[in-house]
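Human: Cast an eye over this sequence-structure pair and say how the chain folds.
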Amino acid sequence: MNARSALQMAAQLVRFAAVGLICLAVSTAALAALHDLAGLYYLVAFGIAFCLGNVLGYVLNGRFTFTVRVTRLGLSRYLLLNVILLAVNSILMKALVDGAHIWYIGASLLLALVNTPLTFLLHRTFSYSAASIRRQHGATTS
């Protein structure tokens, strides 16, 4: 990877994190509202909030982070990856809340922080294919 590609990836990571903060705010507010106000079990509320934040994330990341056209294939890849992430994160959330006795909002924030670099790389290579990014921007290096 050359310096230009590394700089482009770093800029994408910053944009990805910014979008992630927006989605985190939306999903955390939804989680708190669904659990505290609507009385849903925290894992059900977490699943709904996770999905809400991720649909928003797909659209915003497609437009601002990776600047690719939103497609059904990309959305399918994004949702498939996020279903897997939801399953893993739900297990971790249960372990943190019930096992480690961490407040559910704190556990959700901790998982979001830990997941950011991993999900960036997964979505960059799987959901928003690097090859399609290069084609759309006319870049020849990866």
Remarks:
- Residues 3-37 form the longest helix (35 residues).
- The chain has a mean pLDDT of 86.
- Helices lie at 3-37, 42-65, 72-99, 104-127, 130-137.
